[in-house]
Design a protein that fits this description.
With 643 residues, the protein is α+β, with helices and mostly antiparallel strands. The chain has 20 helices and 11 strands. It has helices at 2-26, 42-53, 115-122, 126-129, 219-259, 263-272, 275-299, 301-321, 324-356, 364-387, 396-407, 425-440, 442-463, 468-471, 474-485, 490-499, 505-546, 550-566, 569-586, 592-642, and strands spanning 36-40, 68-70, 79-83, 88-91, 96-104, 111-112, 136-138, 154-155, 162-164, 184-192, 205-213. β5 (96-104) and β6 (111-112) form a beta hairpin. α13 runs antiparallel to α17.
Length: 643
């Protein structure tokens, strides 16, 4: 009997030890109730994260049994305490620490971090945060956030929002996509209340894997893409400069050979000059030649066509980013393309400023272009400064708000599509006419708002009881009158007041529509149409000034032809020959062969000009004959009809 009792006692003790060991492996402390453990509530976390972010984007290739979350969304984890004995679950509301203790690009490459790495990736202490190694931070970190001795954030069940940060030197700081898809990362999360537990005898520790996707482009890597794009542009520019210089060199050699200039004469001139002056003049000529090349590039219509194509492509990428699904899957690649396109915009602005100088800012289209480029550079610079460690980790939430506000400036890039209007003169004239019309329509707009305010007071005082939904306060009344101005559901407003004992509202509605819509709004349109007519007349007048009346042109050209024909060919040749000899003899730097060639060239120009004058006079005479023929024919036809 005693032996049986001892066996039973030893069996119970062994079972208790086994259960204690099992609970310790599952994360329950020695003082916790038997069978209790901490677990990650996946379903509640997905539901609450979707409610908080208003949407949920799963991974393109999710791992079975592993939750997947989007990087830009706030992560809202929930935990429960499971009782394996009775099968009940309670929400875990105790304080705890949230740490990233491992990670990898794939499930097979996940590794556990050392204690030093865990401290770097999770601690908010000043010594660790200055290294730009934080993986996450608490969303909207308050000033009085609770921290442990090591600098870990103390979280609780009611306050547990996580914002992924992934700074530059963290393991997820600079990720590249695979197969042009969004980058993803696998984290090993450890949740523990060892340092924050209310009951020191019941401690829980839980580890689980988390899949995060949709990591953005690192600003430093974006700067690398910009440098690569700038290198390509510089290479193309250098090739173009080299080709142009080679052509100029070949042309210079050809001219020297043609004019009979030998190398000995050039060497004598070089020895006679000062070496420093020659070097300075050479550098100056090189800079002038470079300026001429840049000027040709800016004035070339191909540059405007290329920039228009870049603007259209940039606009298409902006439109693609409005679809959240496209941004989630290809946000990294679109950001890289945006960095490359920014280089083209900056290069265009710099080239035009170098060529045009201060006159660049006198064009309103250039001012708009410069403003958009400046805002884009400011946004990129701030993100680059933050990535390089210009802001502390304690101000991470404030930085997110600032960058989110500045990202709104990216919408101004869509206005670059307006630059394409300069290629369409008709659209440009319409837009300029609309802008000029607003100056003359300011008085009409003031009158419209004045009468709108008067009718607002009248409707508010007389019909706020019969129709409080539309005339309950001053703001509802203004909105309703704007709605009536478009003739939208004004009959329903009338029927609502009529059913509530105010049928006389029809008189006030009719008066308001007559004054605002049929008077002021039509007057507004009339001024706009009148300005369009004035613009059309100005364009016709400019064209008529460039091409004067036909008869006046014929008369002037014929008189000029007669005056030119009065001079004989011998007199012209003699005069031009004397002028050429005078210019040639004024400088001793030209050879005799070159002087003869210049004289011959001027004689040919004089002969060509004389033949052109003869051709113009004959063309004028022919036009007069044709006009006289058709005029006489029209008169004969009219006389026949009259008879």
């Amino acid at each position: 009997m005693n032996v049986t009792l001892l066996v039973l006692i030893f069996s119970v003790v062994a079972m208790m030890v086994t259960c204690d060991l099992q609970l310790s492996e599952r994360g329950a402390g020695p003082g916790c109730p038997l069978g209790q453990r901490l677990a990650f509530d996946i379903n509640t976390t997905l539901e609450e994260s979707k409610r908080l972010n208003n949407e949920y984007f799963d991974c393109l290739n999710p791992e079975p049994g592993m939750p997947c979350f989007y990087y830009s969304h706030v992560f809202l984890p929930f935990f429960v305490t499971e009782d394996t004995v009775i099968g009940e679950n309670d929400r875990f509301l105790d304080s705890y620490t949230f740490k990233v203790v491992g990670g990898g690009r794939t499930t097979g490459s996940v590794r556990n971090y050392s204690e030093e790495e865990v401290l770097k990736f999770n601690s908010l202490s000043d010594s660790e945060s200055s290294q730009q190694t934080l993986v996450w931070t608490y969303d909207d970190v308050p000033e009085s956030v609770l921290l442990t001795k090591e600098g870990f954030i103390v979280m609780s069940g009611a306050s547990n929002r996580v914002r992924w940060l992934c700074q530059r030197n963290s393991p997820c700081g600079d990720l590249t996509p695979v197969n042009l898809l969004d980058p993803d990362f696998f984290f090993v999360i450890e949740v523990s209340n060892k340092e924050t537990a209310r009951n020191p005898f019941c401690e829980h520790t839980l580890r689980f894997e988390l899949h995060v996707h949709g990591f953005p482009l690192d600003p430093v890597r974006g700067l690398f893409f910009m440098q690569m794009t700038m290198t390509v542009i510089q290479t193309i520019l250098l090739c173009y400069i080299g080709h142009t210089c080679w052509r100029l060199r070949q042309k210079t050699v050809y001219i020297k050979k043609r004019d009979g200039l030998d190398e000995q004469e050039g060497s004598k001139q070089f020895k006679a000059g000062d070496a420093m002056v020659k070097v300075g003049s050479t550098l100056r000529s090189c800079f002038l030649q470079l300026y001429c090349i840049i000027y040709r590039i800016v004035q070339n219509p191909m540059l405007d066509h290329f920039i228009m194509l870049v603007v259209l492509f940039d606009t298409s990428t902006l439109m693609a980013q409005t679809f959240q699904g496209v941004t989630v899957r290809t946000g990294w690649c679109l950001s890289a393309v945006d960095s490359c396109l920014l280089v083209f915009y900056v290069t265009e602005a710099v080239f035009k400023i170098l060529v045009q100088g201060r006159t660049y800012f006198r064009n309103p289209w250039n001012d708009l272009d410069f403003f958009i480029v400046f805002m884009s550079l400011l946004e990129f610079t701030l993100s680059l400064v933050q990535s390089a460690g210009g802001f502390g980790s304690r101000h991470a939430s404030t930085l997110f708000r600032v960058l989110k506000t500045l990202k709104g400036a990216r919408v101004f890039r869509a206005l670059r599509l307006l630059k394409a209007i300069r290629f369409f003169k008709g659209l440009q004239a319409i837009l300029l006419t609309c802008l000029e019309s607003f100056r003359s329509m300011s008085s009409i707009i003031v009158l419209m708002f004045l009468f709108l305010f008067i009718f607002t007071v009248i409707f508010r005082e007389m019909f706020n009881e019969s129709d409080p939904e539309h005339f309950g306060n001053i703001f509802r009344t203004i909105f309703t009158l704007f709605q009536i101005l478009t003739l939208d559901d004004w009959s329903l407003i009338y029927m609502t007041s009529r059913d509530n004992g105010a049928p006389h509202i029809i008189y006030f509605l009719s008066l308001y529509i007559l004054v605002e819509l049929f008077t002021f709004l039509n007057l507004f349109i009339a001024v706009l149409v009148d300005n369009f007519q004035l613009s059309i007349r100005k364009r016709k007048l400019c064209k008529s000034q460039k091409s004067p009346d036909v008869k006046e042109g014929e008369t002037q050209s014929s008189e000029k032809a007669v005056e030119d024909l009065e001079m004989s060919q011998a007199e012209i040749e003699e005069e031009l020959h004397k002028e050429a000899l005078r210019h040639a003899s004024s400088g001793s730097k030209h050879s005799k062969r070159k002087i003869e060639l210049i004289c011959r060239h001027l004689q040919l120009l004089a002969a060509m000009d004389q033949h052109m004058q003869k051709y113009r006079s004959q063309a004028c005479l022919l036009d007069n004959l044709v006009e006289t023929f058709f005029t006489d024919r029209d008169e004969e036809t009219r006389s026949d009809v009259v008879e």
